[in-house]
Amino acid sequence: MKLYPFDECVKAAAELMEQGALVHQQFNCAHCGIKQTMDQANKFYTSGVCEECGEETNIRKNGCNYSVMMSL
Question: What percentage of residues in the chain have a pLDDT greater than 90?
């Protein structure tokens, strides 16, 4: 998964949330490389713990992405 700077993702996601989207932050574990998706929608975290290896990733430093769900 391509990662983008944390602040850019937050800004773009906030615009989508204002339109009613559900946004789930995603990041790649800095230790094992597995893609992770946060459970809570419309909230961005600066760090995350990998469900596979249990290690913590600095998302602000490493970057992130997000998935978007919008209803029609």
Answer: 97
Report in angstroms the alpha-carbon separations of 9 from 14, 24, 51: 8, 11, 22
Antiparallel, parallel or unpaired: β 47-49 and 35-37? unpaired
pLDDT digits (tens, 9 = 90+) for 28-48: 999 999 999 999 999 999 999
pTM passes above 0.70: yes
Strand ranges for the chain from DSSP E: 22-28, 35-37, 47-49, 56-58, 65-69
Q: Where are the alpha helices (DSSP H) in 1-72?
A: 6-18, 59-62
DSSP secondary structure code for residue 64 in this structure: B
The residue whose two tokens read 């790649």 is 28
